Structures are given as structure tokens and as C-alpha cells.
Amino acid sequence: ELECIKQNTRGVQMYKRAGFEVHRELVGWQRDAPASGEFQDSSELTSCSFEDVDKVVKTHGADDLPWQAWGFTQDSKAQRAFRLGDAYCVISNPEDDEKDTVRMQCLIVDPSSRGKGEASQLIKALMGRYPTKKWAAGAIFPKEYGANIASKLGFSQPDMYQYQMYLKLD
After folding, report:
1. pTM reported for the whole predicted model
2. d(Cα 97, Cα 94) in Å, to the nearest integer?
3. Residue 16's CB: how many other CB atoms inside 10 A?
4. Most buried among 24, 26, 60, 142, using CB within 10 Å?
5. CA 14 to chain centroid
């Protein structure tokens, strides 16, 4: 398994000649800081441990997620973990005054609560808590998992995409 930037046509063709097949597109999203009052903080938004998030990912994450989605730096100076209901995320440290953009590293909802808007509520609460920050997610998220929530929250897709590619070994 590997990821290759979609625009790297020579690289994509090389991998295809070697027998790799495109499994899916991985995309990222970005958006400017929310407009004043666009999103509200929530008293139900709480910090949680990286271990809490890791447990949910390892228990309920799809088996075919790209390798980057399976791990995140568990460095409390560089990143923070949050929970709202059954939705969990890991983001870059939003209190780092040196950086104007918060980067999402992981977003997952317990299967019993999927489809109920909990991921959207979590991201809205975070944007409400840190309203001066821009927001971004790198091209590690499967398009089919994130496109709907990203468009609902006003994110746009940058020009960079990756292919998640597999080579079947017999």
C-alpha cells in the first residue's frame, strides 16, 4: 500500500506499471477563520487523552484507512485531543500563537452515533472556541468519508490530492 500525489502523473504511471491499482482518492480541505458568531463554543466540548482517541480509531476505524490516519503524534505541546459526545478528534495545538491554521489529524465517531451530526457538532464547537484560526485537513482523508461534512462546514478542497494505491501480492 502507498499514497502518491495525483498530480505526479509520472509517479502514478510508474506505480501502475508495477501493478499498483488506485483504491481511492485522499483529499484535504481548508477554510478561512469563521465569521464572527458563525459557530459557538460548547460546554460539552472537552479535552480527552490521545489514548481515548487511539482506542476508538483502533477499534472502529476502517481497515483500509491510509497509514497516516492510523497514527498521530501524541505530543501535548504540538497537538490536542477533544471529544464531544461520541465524536473524537486530534488537532494541532490551537493555542500556538505562531500558527494561524489549525490542522485536523484525526476525526472519528463511535459507530453507534454515526450519521447523527456529531462530527459536525464537534468541529463547529472547536471553530467556535478558536474563532480566529483558519482550519485545514491534509490529504489523508478518504474522499467518501469527508466530502459531505467538509462542504457543510464551508471547507473547500485545495488542488492537491493523493491516490491510495494497492499492490496485490499473490
Report:
1. 0.88
2. 8
3. 14
4. 26
5. 28
